[in-house]
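Course exercise 7: structure representation. Students receive a sequence record and must write out the corresponding structure in token form. The form below is the worked example handed out in class, using G-protein coupled receptors family 1 profile domain-containing protein (314 residues). Read each field label carefully; the graders check that inputs and outputs are placed in the correct fields and that the protein name is recorded exactly as given.

STUDENT ID: A-19
EXERCISE PROTEIN: G-protein coupled receptors family 1 profile domain-containing protein
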Amino acid sequence: MGKTKNTSLDTVVRDFILLGLSHPPNLTSLLFLVFFIIYILTQLGNLLILLTVWADPKLRARPMYILLGVLSFLDMWLSSVIVPRLILDFTPSIKAIPFGGCVAQLYFFHFLGSTQCFLYTLMAYDRYLAICQPLRYPVLMNGRLCTVLVAGAWVAGSMHGSIQATLTFRLPYCGPNQVDYFICDIRAVLRLACADTTVNELVTFVDIGVVAAGCFMLILLSYANIVHAILKIRTADGRRRAFSTCGSHLIVVTVYYVPCIFIYLRAGSKGPLDGAAAVFYTVVTPLLNPLIYTLRNQEVKSALKRITAGRGTE
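STUDENT ANSWER:
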């Protein structure tokens, strides 16, 4: 299925079949409902954050919340690239995805995922400037610079996604077309290639390692300076307020990077836990982000109250 003969008598893959997540057959309906609810809540939660930042003048004038709005937009799209396809795995429908659809899914997955990495780094840099350089912050991080940095993150993410998609699908696929995964991702697709994938695997490891590890190290460096600056604050209330502005971002970074590093940068064989880790950072994390920022961020909660009370434009 999904293959056609060419003149060299080899078979050419026309589509792929995603085998999805392993699960007991009696849980199919429950898992369909769970992932469907997660998807709807993810879209609504991130849309709420996006509209709140846009509608409240106090928030949309600050780079921190501009970045938060961009993060919500990314989460909505990342969820839309992954979850609807995943939901189909729990239905009787055909599990095949066209070759071009697989290329597009892999590209957008790595494009949006790497853009998030860059955005988390920008958010850490913004907090570093706000806490460690408070007097110069309005000059060092203004709206124009924030826009340029965000645009740079999008361009870099697009380049990363293009590199991964081009390297993966430049190889011939002429044999089995069953992808033992719930999405078209690099390692799962490369197992089906009819050519040596050593170079691809090395480039993938280095490329993703540079992006993920590089961004992670910059975030750690930013927060090392932030902690050092906070410890110099004399009052306990001042330290508490400074830490509260960074707590949400640290939680989000942790729940994103730990599964990502587990999947792409660890050595050794890959096991069933890879699927669970991938589901966590591709499906669960976009759901958690708006919850973390609304429950832990007093300014977002205050803005929501103002908008609800009809005072969002004051």
